[in-house]
Amino acid sequence: MSMTNIENKSVNAIRILAADAIQKANSGHPGLPLGAAPTAYTVWAKHMKHNPANPKWENRDRFVLSGGHGSMLLYSLLHLFGYGLTIDDIKNFRQFGSLTPGHPEYGHTIGVEATTGPLGAGMAMATGMAIAEKHLESVFNKEGFPVVDHYTYVLGGDGCMMEGISYEAFSLAGTLGLSKLIVLYDSNDISIEGGTNIAFRENVQKRFEAFGFQTLRVEDGNNIDEISKAIEAAKADTERPSFIEIKTKIGAGCPAKEGKASAHGEPLGVENVAALRENLGWESQESFVVPQDVYDNYSSIAKANASYEEEWNSLMEKYFATYPEMKELWDKFYNGKDAEKLFDNEEFWNVVDKPEATRNVSGKIINIIKNVVPNMFGGAADLAPSTKTYMADKGDFSKETPDGCNMHFGVRELSMAAIGNGIYLHGGLKPYVSTFFVFSDYVKPMARLSALMKAPVTYVLTHDSIGVGEDGPTHQPIEQLAMLRAMPNFYVWRPADASETAAAWYFALTKKDAPSALVLTRQNLPQLDGSGKDALKGGYILEDSTKATPDAIIIATGSEVSLAVEAKKILAGKGVDARVVSMPCMDLFEDQSEEYKESVLPKEVRKRVAVEALTSFGWGKYIGLDGKFVGMKGFGASAPAGQLFPFFGITADAVAEAITD
């Protein structure tokens, strides 16, 4: 049998497995797997460096399925190449507890490089991976030792091209000259509501030219030779990222569904699956049966691919022998625990001793961290001078200076967060991203993916309340803290002073399985007696009453903790002995034992007031039915911060009055 025939059968195996799994589940999206199977096969079988025996090999090529609804395309590849997905896993597509969920989930299924589903997200995460690769190349590669040298492939369709996040990411990718990023556009002119011309008539090729991409086009998406030539041309351009538009038919091979919108998101139907088999000349009518010669073909490709890693391992051995100092650095980047050293770093915990904005404190802390943690990498959405996230003497990452560690994301908050995810997913770097807190509305969808993927990306979100002042209600966050706190597996910090800011950074850098947000002030805050490492419990007693059972409890975060301390003094003059609890991170407080939480907030003390210059949403669990809240009930106003706090009734007197009223 000629290779042409076995390749056709191997491509069709992807299609058949996808159609069978979706039909059995009676749920799924067959259109993309049927149309893009030749593209995926060409990439995985003819171009990608990957080793199913070691899916986490550091120098593997990455493949991101941005059109995550087409997950059966990826699962079929992982099964056929021997990544450990069994035929039973394929049969259990979309079933509870299976390794083949409806959309690909990072950390759940071996070989899945990113959690995708929200269209365009994979495009931006792939951009982050390519940024990480380019930076790590500049850090580690020596003449004759290209130890970091791989491509990032990302596949998506018309929906991914329509989403704004792709525009943001690829504008940056072109600016940065990410020549090892290869975008594969499954161009079939169909979206859920019908032909794409109802809402999408732009010249996508021209757009990518404007971004600074090499643009290529394959007219026949079934022609693996033409697809292969385009990928070779993409690899040959060492100055620009590449965009390959591949014209396909959605639902290819299924006579009744090919080219129709109905192929996108519903099973083909039993009769149509049978017709697909007949049309493709598939030899078995039984579901989930793949001929042995197809398995053998995939297995032989996988075995040949293993040589890439063997060669790399040999190269690394010589590299480390020649440059022993680079082995130490490599270990720090990929396996390091340097951040844990900050726990005993006096400078880190005592960075300032005078009133200072927590954004300023964070900026000083970042510049301590970067001397201890060599793989810190991050920046802001054109706001580093305001968010104080610039690392001195670490250079700017750019096309010309890829060794720089400061990222200029531009005014692109949504893709910035996704790119941060991609940088983390690549491995080797500790990413952080930054913008004003009110713009966490733009950040949130990709922060949610961080939480889903258990990706410890750090979000630095400054200008945290009406304390922003004159910029007014468009820039004054009100409901955003509640929004982020509502997200599972996402640790939201609002520190009250320098020590709590240090605790927030320490937690963010050492937490292995969740992202963190540091919500920081523009205005100066006093340094508080009693704050410190106890903040690593999320909530703690800052100032206690003299009684075993306090008369009242005041709970506060961030800039309002100092108001709570003042209110305690006022109450003392009225014969009320109150406890002040600082709650920099509700999520972390909830992780503590019931005994500890009871010791801080004893149930018998029902006279409680929470104070926070944001919405009250979410505070009910801590103040209860008898408690009161001092904070915002609507949007802010444009005026100096010093006028706004008293205008909105957020003062020490108001807190004391809430207790005694």
UniProtKB/TrEMBL annotation:
Entry note: cofactor: Binds 1 Mg(2+) ion per subunit. Can also utilize other divalent metal cations, such as Ca(2+), Mn(2+) and Co(2+).
Domain of life (superkingdom): Bacteria
Pfam families: Transket_pyr, Transketolase_C_1, Transketolase_N
Keyword Cytoplasm listed: no
Needed co-factor(s): Ca(2+); Mg(2+); Mn(2+); Co(2+)
Catalysed reactions, semicolon-separated: D-sedoheptulose 7-phosphate + D-glyceraldehyde 3-phosphate = aldehydo-D-ribose 5-phosphate + D-xylulose 5-phosphate
Binding residue positions for thiamine diphosphate: 69, 117-119, 159, 188, 264, 439
Keywords (A to Z) from UniProt: Calcium, Magnesium, Metal-binding, Thiamine pyrophosphate, Transferase
Keyword flag Transferase: yes
Molecular function per GO: metal ion binding; transketolase activity
EC number(s) given by UniProt: 2.2.1.1
Residue(s) at site: Important for catalytic activity: 29, 264
Binding site for substrate: 29, 264, 359, 386, 463, 471, 475, 522
Subunit structure: Homodimer.
NCBIfam families (UniProt xref): tktlase_bact (TIGR00232)
Record's protein name: Transketolase
Protein source organism: Eubacterium ruminantium
Lineage: Bacteria, Bacillati, Bacillota, Clostridia, Eubacteriales
